[in-house]
């Protein structure tokens, strides 16, 4: 009579319990972040009504400013405002922008796709650069190849991504002018990848390369250092003593165990890229979440700023959750309980 493996069933049960516990723990984390952001936004100086009504420098009647504040609910008690914010999260209603009067979900949705696409492409670029180069650098330690890779990674750390973006744009202009007789620039108007994949790729690939190279440098050095540590472990020496091929030792035994801190870097950087590409977006004239952050701060639209911060917090929490789940796949010695 056939039966399942009780050990595997027990491990699957612990894994499911761990996932459920982590999902439940996200709730107080997000709630605490919401409270902190709500309080800090109301401590920041600035009044959206004064900025909106006195933007041209003309005199504004204080009564008009008071009416504006009343319409926006700024005169309501703080606990009432906080309750409205929390209820909005429960009903998936982020409210309206204090500056434009438009729905915040719509405003964020227009820019989130662009920022998410650049973050994904930049992460892929970083992975394609960091893991192979870090592995080669560790295997060829203290050789000329190792020195070249380390120089390449140090240059990426020292080189700001916005400066590299400017150099890419200048390079495209000079190269296309020399080869085709007419300068070419990446498209400015965003096109969905589902409508025009090539046009979309022509726009987002260059900021993704500039940003991906920047944080692949950190991941390359981390891959090299962790892989060097793993290659000195006893089980690697045992595998070599058994006569296993070096390629098999690296791919099956050493590399996966060395990826834990590298995966952590990729997860944290991916969450940062969602709303942290302020200067890069300015260089490539992209209307992403980073630009929306700056515009909202300049206009004291703290409702928009609050929702953008909470979006980034939620992405950070979710990425940490995914990274923890990847640990068990990368290192079978990790057990969740």
Write the layout of secondary structure elements.
Layout: H1 6-43, H2 48-53, H3 62-72, H4 78-90, H5 104-139, H6 144-158, H7 161-180, H8 197-231, H9 234-241, H10 246-258, H11 260-275, H12 278-283, H13 289-298, H14 302-330
Helix pairs in contact: 1-14, 5-6, 5-8, 5-11, 6-8, 7-8, 8-10, 8-11, 11-14, 13-14
Structure in words:
With 337 residues, this protein is an all-alpha fold. Among the domains are: 43 residues, no CATH class; 191 residues, MetI-like (MetI-like fold, Orthogonal Bundle). The protein is built from 14 helices and no strands. The mean pLDDT is 82.
Highlighted features:
single chain; 337 residues; mainly alpha; MetI-like fold; 14 helices; 0% strand; flat
CATH topology of the domain at 108-298: MetI-like fold
Q: Radius of gyration in whole Å, from Cα? A: 25 Å
**Text of the CATH class of the domain at 108-298:** Mainly Alpha
Strand content: under 5%
Cα separation of the termini? 31 Å
Count of DSSP strands: 0
Fraction of residues in helix: over 70%
Mean pLDDT: 82
CATH superfamily membership of the domain at 108-298: MetI-like
Q: How many separate helices?
A: 14
Molecular shape: flat
Largest sheet: none
* Poorly predicted sequence stretches spanning 5 or more consecutive residues: none
Structural class call reads: mainly alpha
Order of secondary-structure elements: HHHHHHHHHHHHHH
In the CATH hierarchy, the architecture of the domain at 108-298 is: Orthogonal Bundle
């Amino acid at each position: 009579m056939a039966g399942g493996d009780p050990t595997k069933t027990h491990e699957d049960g612990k894994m499911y319990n761990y996932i459920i516990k982590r999902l439940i723990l996200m709730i107080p984390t997000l709630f605490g972040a919401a409270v902190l952001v709500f309080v800090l936004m109301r401590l920041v100086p600035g009044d959206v009504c004064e900025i909106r009504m006195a933007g041209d420098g003309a005199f504004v009647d204080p009564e008009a400013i008071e009416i504006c504040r009343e319409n926006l609910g700024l005169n309501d008690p703080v606990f009432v405002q906080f309750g409205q914010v929390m209820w909005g999260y429960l009903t998936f209603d982020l409210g309206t922008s204090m500056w434009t009067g438009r729905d915040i979900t719509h405003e964020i949705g227009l820019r989130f796709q662009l920022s998410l696409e650049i973050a994904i492409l930049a992460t892929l670029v970083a992975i394609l650069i960091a893991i192979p180069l870090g592995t080669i650098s560790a295997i060829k330690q203290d050789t000329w190849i190792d020195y070249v890779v380390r120089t390449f990674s140090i240059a990426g750390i020292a080189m700001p991504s916005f400066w590299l973006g400017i150099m890419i744009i200048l390079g495209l202009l000079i190269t296309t002018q020399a080869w085709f007789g007419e300068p070419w620039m990446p498209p400015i108007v965003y096109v969905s990848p589902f409508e025009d994949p090539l046009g979309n790729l022509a726009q987002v690939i260059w900021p993704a390369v500039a940003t991906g190279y920047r944080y692949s440098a950190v991941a390359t050095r981390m891959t090299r250092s962790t892989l060097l540590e793993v290659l000195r472990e006893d089980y690697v020496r045992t595998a070599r003593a058994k006569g296993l091929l070096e390629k098999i030792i690296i791919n099956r035994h050493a590399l996966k165990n060395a990826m834990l801190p590298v995966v952590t870097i990729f997860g944290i950087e991916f969450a940062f890229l969602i709303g942290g590409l302020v200067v890069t977006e300015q260089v490539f004239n992209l209307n992403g979440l980073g630009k929306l952050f700056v515009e909202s701060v300049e206009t004291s639209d703290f409702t928009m700023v609050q929702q953008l911060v909470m979006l980034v917090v939620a992405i950070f929490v979710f990425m940490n959750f995914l990274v923890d789940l990847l640990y068990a796949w990368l290192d079978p010695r990790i057990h969740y309980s």
